[in-house]
Specification:
- This protein is an alpha+beta fold.
- The protein folds into two domains: about 280 residues, Orthogonal Bundle (2-methylcitrate dehydratase PrpD); about 140 residues, 2-Layer Sandwich (60s Ribosomal Protein L30, Chain: A), CATH 3.30.1330.120.
- The protein is about 45% helix and about 10% strand.
- It has a four-stranded mixed beta sheet. Strands 1-4 form a two-stranded antiparallel sheet.
- β2 and β3 form a beta hairpin.
- α6 packs antiparallel against α7 and α8 runs antiparallel to α9.
- The radius of gyration is 22 Å and the shape is globular.
- The protein starts with a strand and ends in a 28-residue tail after the last helix.
- It catalyses: (2S,3S)-2-methylcitrate = 2-methyl-cis-aconitate + H2O.
- This is 2-methylcitrate dehydratase.
- Belongs to the PrpD family.
- Keywords: Lyase.
């Protein structure tokens, strides 16, 4: 990897195109380096993972509404069109304009907050790259090998940006790293010229910068739509750039660019790691998926809470507990912990999206139930149970500098997302325990591999898809690198009895 210095430039400094980060991203995208076998294996795993969580959410209101928007935009000219999760796999009736198909599928993937993650200087769900890149692959008649190359680039660029540039510190939503990465991945997929990719990356970034209010306070359904919108914008940016249209430049480094006015300002300095020419794109191997449907920083805490409840069942009764303090990282404390100062995180009537970002709620329920379920654990009846509310309100978080240091460590053997819990009991005793990473993490107690990804799909698809449809999808997904263009439409699922989308403008 090579570190590329990035800073702002005055307009009279005239930063050359070749020295701009967007151009360097384009150079990574056009590098024809082979995708290594272990990366191919993980890409297949993440395609299965995305499909699993999309299937589990396709009947939920945000995904249904997004599907309705896509279905109002039938296949566009210039290609075969793209498929939408839950609809017809083959035939004209099941094909839609690629940007809208990517949008609908992106909402389905993100709705339950249940797919892969990468956390460093910023936060991300790199699997959000898959819906737009897949939609364009279907529309443009690309094969499975090309799709694999495109996904490898999407992951690489997003992870590299997340390692170097913090958006969250300036309250900018993390999808501002997704627009450029998806555009770069589509550029690789289609084999576009670097100039086209350069322009598309700039346009995708320019149109996907937004505030983090979508993840603050009473969290709305837009939380699932934000990354889908970024993927849709990436496709539209590629389309414009292919037509010869240009974009704001330098988009990151300009005097009125993203760094100068949205991030660290004119004095901001970054070093962005990018693969050198001929260096394999391996960033997907640094990412990790979720066993539980909750914010990633909650994954390890769910596992610890389950274990504590089994070993100390007395902790499940709030009458026995005086207080529970989670000593954890800056992000966990200030984003999903009591440091956020969001009263909604302690409100039994809060939305699912809000409870998903409340570690006090999540820890209390996992402690009592000894399990975590993507639907049942968020039901209003579950959140409103009096003994749960009482226990939940005894949970707080504090930032621990050591856990913050480990959270930001570039050494993946030390990087951690958990913390230490101290539980004071009414009888005066104290229970102390800690966990560094989730059980499903590559360094965890039960790391996810192909069998676990397949089982996650089977579990979430049960009762939603027929058994033959489950087996059909798993077969074609696991043959991804060898798929012919006409087989890519099969990377979709058909579900019976889906709700009719509500009426809108289209």
């Amino acid at each position: 990897m090579k570190l590329h210095p990035v800073r702002t430039y005055r307009s009279d400094e005239q930063l050359a195109k070749e020295d701009q980060l967007a151009w360097k991203v384009a150079q990574v995208a056009i590098d024809p380096v082979a995708v290594e076998p272990d990366v191919v294996e993980m890409i297949v795993n993440r395609v299965i993972d995305n499909a699993a969580v999309a299937v589990a959410s396709i009947g939920r209101a945000p995904a249904v509404a997004a599907r309705g928007q896509a279905e109002a935009h039938p296949v566009a000219a210039g290609g075969a069109g793209s498929t939408v999760f839950g609809g017809t796999v083959f035939g004209v009736g099941g094909r839609f304009s690629p940007e809208w198909a990517a949008f609908a599928n992106g909402v389905a993937v993100r709705e339950l907050d249940y797919h892969d993650t990468f956390l460093a200087a910023d936060y991300s769900h790199p699997g959000d790259n898959i819906p737009p890149i897949l939609a364009v692959a279907q529309h443009a008649g690309m094969d499975g090998a090309a799709l694999v190359r495109g996904i490898a680039t999407g992951y690489e660029i997003q992870v590299d940006l997340v390692k170097a540039i913090s958006l969250h510190r300036h309250k900018i939503d993390h999808v501002a790293h997704l627009g450029p990465s998806a555009a770069a991945g589509i550029g690789t997929l289609l084999g576009l010229d670097p100039e086209v990719i350069f322009q598309a990356v700039g346009q995708a970034l320019h149109t996907t910068t937004a505030t983090r209010q979508s993840r603050k306070g009473e969290i709305s359904t837009w939380k699932a739509y934000a990354p889908a919108f970024a993927g849709k914008m990436a496709i539209e940016a590629i389309d414009r750039a292919m037509r010869g249209q240009t974009s704001p430049s330098p988009i990151w480094e300009g005097e009125d660019g993203v760094i100068a006015w949205l991030l660290d300002g004119p004095e901001g300095r970054y070093e962005v790691p990018l693969p050198e020419t001929g260096e394999p794109k391996r960033a997907i191997l640094d990412t990790y998926t979720k066993e539980h449907s909750a914010e990633y920083q909650a994954q390890a805490w769910i596992d610890l809470a389950r274990d504590l409840g089994a070993r100390h069942p007395e902790l499940r009764d709030p009458a026995n507990v005086t207080r529970i303090v989670l000593h954890t990282s800056h992000h966990t404390h200030y984003v999903i912990g009591s440091g956020a100062n969001d009263p909604q995180k302690f409100d039994p009537t809060a939305s699912r999206e809000t409870l998903d970002h409340s570690i006090p709620y999540i820890f209390a329920v996992a402690l009592q139930d000894g399990t975590w379920h993507h639907v049942d654990s968020y039901l209003p009846s579950r959140a409103g149970r009096p003994d749960t509310v009482e226990l939940w309100h005894k949970v707080s978080t504090v930032e621990d500098p050591e856990w913050t240091r480990r959270y930001h460590s570039n050494d993946l053997r030390l990087k951690a997302f958990g913390g230490r819990v101290e539980i004071d009991l009414a009888d005066g005793t104290r229970i102390v325990d800690e966990i560094a990473v989730a059980d499903a993490h590559p360094l965890g107690a039960r790391p996810f591999a192909r069998p676990q990804y397949v089982q996650k799909f089977r579990t979430l698809a049960s009762g939603v898809l027929s058994d033959p449809e489950i087996e059909r999808f798993l077969d074609i997904a696991q043959r991804l690198p060898e798929l012919a263009p006409d087989e890519l439409a099969g990377l979709n699922v058909v579900a019976a009895g889906l709700p009719t989308p509500p009426k809108g403008l289209f």
